[in-house]
Amino acid sequence: MMHKKSLAALVATLFAVPFAAHADVTIYGFLSSSIESTKATGTSVANGDYKSRTRVVDDNSRIGFKGNEDLGNGTKAIWQVESSLRYFEQGGTNDIGQGATFATRNSFVGLDNGTFGKVLLGQNDSAYKAMTNIGLNLFGDTTAENNGSSQVYSRAEARLKNSIHYFSPNWSGFQVGGSYGVDESRTSSNSNGSTNASHLSLAANYTNGGLQLAAGWDRTNDTGFQQGVFKNSAYKGFAWSGANVTYTKLAASYKFATGTFVGAGYEFGRFDQAIAGASSLKQDDWTLSLGQDIGAATVKLEYSSLGRLKGATAGTEDNYKAHQWALGVDYNLSKTTKLFSYYTKITNKQSQSANFANTPVYNTTDTTANTGVLNAGNDPQAFGVGLKVAF
């Protein structure tokens, strides 16, 4: 009996030291999955539809570790490592062979000072993405989400690798931020010149009670687009000296005491072409969001639109339009667990192929290059119910 007690005490001592030393480390994340009926039809490509099927999908699940060390004088060293748990429902690999790996999401080291703000170094959401959402993305992390480069709204959103970020303190509800991503694979050739595709992102927001306002500006340097060349609906960028991709965004939202949420956002994109002497292409997008809390439930409705591609070949500008609407209900079972349901449909014009945000569908699969294609003109739609558990 004495031996057993001594052994137990030794084991407890060994484990107590590391836990005490790292008491400031936080483990967080969530697992979320839906079962849904999905299809994408309407393309003019022969046998190019995505036939109706039932599928189980992961809703952007993740796990993260973060911590800090007090350095004194109001300054802390901060760090975070966040990894995707996407595709956990099918063993960690999606339909085109892509798998989740370690530190795929926001992962950084930095300094945080209450007076001067926060500086991060590593991989992180751009200031544009982090500060202009202001609650408009009501269906975030699900199939029905509308935000992202291959979607209908907020197409400048990016998570920047090899980047540095600054976020100011909150000055009576007002905050500013900036991000800079370096280009570590600069190119040089006779056709497109020497390129430095660095990324600059600036944003600001203001909060006063239920009111939120935001503005952002984002530019990718030395990157041109070619009309008619697509990659999951986002125009495929090419390294091209002197060409830039620039976005500007304005957004506003208000949450009433009655639990009613209303919001709107507008984004304008300008795309220099990767063709000598070609004029720039221009395209805007916008969204309207409406939500209503009813006890433990929230009813949500969102409509988003992607406009004409101005500067495209004469007579084809309207062919690049798309719009999406989504309707859903959330029901909170507890502070960390909720049931949710949604219906969403994207309508693409004949040259557009906007896709679902987190669980895209593909007509053609290239497992060698780990890429997939949704044929232009296809209209994806999905109805799903799911469960989300946060930790």
Structure overview:
With 391 residues, the chain is mainly beta. It has one domain: Porin (Beta Barrel). The protein has 2 helices and 21 strands. The chain has helices spanning 2-21, 127-131, and strands spanning 26-41, 50-58, 62-72, 75-84, 107-113, 117-125, 159-167, 174-181, 188-189, 193-194, 199-208, 211-231, 234-255, 260-271, 281-294, 297-306, 322-332, 337-348, 364-366, 371-373, 379-390. Strands 1-3-4-5-6-7-8-11-12-13-14-15-16-17-18-21 form a 16-stranded antiparallel β-barrel. Strands 9-10 form a two-stranded antiparallel ribbon. A two-stranded antiparallel ribbon has the order 19-20. A hairpin with an 8-residue loop joins strand 1 and strand 2. The protein is globular. Mean pLDDT is 89; it is low at 1-22.
Order of helices and strands: HEEEEEEHEEEEEEEEEEEEEEE
Question: Could you estimate the helical fraction of the residues in percent?
Answer: under 10%
Based on Cα principal axes, name the global outline.
globular
Question: What is the name of the CATH topology?
Answer: Porin
Low-confidence stretches: 1-22
CATH architecture call = Beta Barrel
Structural class: mainly beta
- How many domains comprise the coordinates? 1
What does this entry show, briefly?
The protein has 391 residues and is mainly β. The protein is 6% helix and 54% strand.
